[in-house]
Amino acid sequence: MKNIVLCGSMKVKERILAIAEQLKQDGYNVLLPKECINNEPKATASRAHMKRIIDESNSSILIINERKNGIDNYIGPNSFVEIAFGYYFNKKVFLLNDIYEPYGDELKGWGVIPLHGNLAKLNNYQ
Prior knowledge:
This protein has helices spanning 13-25, 34-38, 42-55, 77-88, 104-109, and strands at 2-7, 28-31, 59-63, 93-95, 113-114. By secondary structure, it is α/β, with parallel strands linked by helices. The protein has a single domain (2-124), classed as Rossmann fold (3-Layer(aba) Sandwich). It is globular. It starts with a strand and ends in a 12-residue tail after the last strand.
């Protein structure tokens, strides 16, 4: 089974959950941020989620970088850290949408793959 860890702002929690359901139907084992599931405190949930990124040796990471506060392809500080963890631990890291330009040099340099809204593109990399 294909493992994928979902990351993103909790302001798009409903979108993350909808994408999780779609990926499950496509045969993925989806690992969600604990905040999505249990409404845990940020520090507890972040630590657990970063550990999940490290420990799931055969997983990819999908950042749900939706429009937020009028900014397209937004990646917040927590998601950027999760991308960095994924890069460091040799995970395939995907962006649901396009590159978030304030971090463009790092994202491109680390080989992060934008899906341009098309989840089916994940199959090209599994």
